[in-house]
What we know:
By secondary structure, the chain is of the alpha+beta class. It has a domain at 1-83. It contains three helices and eleven strands. 4% of the residues are buried. It is found in: Nucleus. InterPro entries: Snail/Krueppel_Znf, Znf_C2H2_sf, Znf_C2H2_type. Keywords: Metal-binding, Nucleus, Repeat, Transcription, Transcription regulation, Zinc, Zinc-finger.
Amino acid sequence: MGVVSQEGSLVSYPPMLQQLSYGDSDVAVSAGGTSLLTTTNAIHRGSSRNPLPHSRRPWMKYCRLCPYSTPIAGNLSRHMLSHSKERPFACRLCPYRCNQKVNLQQHMVIHTGEKPYKCSFCDYRSSRKATIRHHEVAIHRLK
C-alpha cells in the first residue's frame, strides 16, 4: 500500500506511518501526527472548523460541532453543554437561564453590583477579572 508523492510517483508507507482517509484522498501520517504525503493537494484546503486528520494532535480533544479544542477532557465535557438546549441554572431575580453554574454566578453581579476585582495601579474595579487585565494593559501599559 502507498500514496502518490507530489511528483506523481507511488511511494510505499514506511512501517511507522499509518494511512488515514479523508474524503476521497489518502494521507500518510507520521507517529507525531504530521502529514507527509497526500494523493491530492486539495486535501490541504480543509477548514479550521473541521481540521483534517493530519492537522489534529492526538492529545487534543475536539468538539464535533464547532472549532473548539482542548487537551483536557473535562473542559470538552463542560464545553459540550454550550451546545445543549438544556438550561438547568435559573436566576431567581429575572428570566435568565444558563447551562453552567459559573455563568449564573457571573450573571448575578448584574443584580448585586458586586465588583470584586480591583486594578493593581488605581481604584478602578470590575465584576470581571478579564476586564481588569484589559484595563491594566490599556490604561497602565502593563504587558
